[in-house]
Specification:
Strand 2 and strand 3 form a beta hairpin. The strands form 2 sheets. A two-stranded antiparallel sheet has the order 1-4. Strands 2-3 form a two-stranded antiparallel sheet. The protein is extended and about 65 Å long. It contains 4 helices and 4 strands; from the N terminus they run βααββαβα. It has one domain. The chain starts with 6 loop residues before the first strand and ends in a 23-residue tail after the last helix. 31% of the residues lie in helices and 11% in strands. By secondary structure, the chain is an alpha+beta fold.
């Protein structure tokens, strides 16, 4: 229906790490050893031409570089390539299993009116 995210940045992965979820989430994505280069073309058919390639290190390579240059230049967690649809399903399943979280799927928030609480 509309484009969805497919690259979770390192800072977001740090939040997943703080919640104890990063390792499990990484299991849903592209293996850490794979480079994440992106190609930009005029098309995918035989008549398509390469415009440029964006070179992206693999998450494993980023981990190695961050250990060699441990000065805050790199995020604590490397990025993850995983489609948002898979992440959303995984998170929904996680939330649904939590006793302390009340979830409402299929509802829409239309507004909030603040005032005195009665009763």
């Amino acid at each position: 229906m509309y484009p969805k995210m497919e690259l979770t940045q390192g800072r977001a992965m740090e939040i997943y790490r703080a919640l104890g979820l990063a390792d499990e989430l990484r299991g849903l994505g592209v293996p850490e050893s794979e480079r994440l280069d992106e190609i930009i073309t005029t098309g995918l058919g035989e008549s398509g031409h390469l415009i440029t390639t964006w070179k992206r290190d693999s998450p494993s390579e980023i981990r190695e570089k961050s250990q060699e240059q441990n000065d805050g230049t790199f995020p604590r967690e490397p990025y993850l390539r995983c489609h948002q649809i898979a992440v959303e399903k995984w998170l929904k399943d996680k939330i649904s299993k939590q006793d302390k979280i009340k979830s409402f799927w299929g509802w829409r928030f239309v507004g909030l009116q603040e005032g005195e609480t009665t009763g």
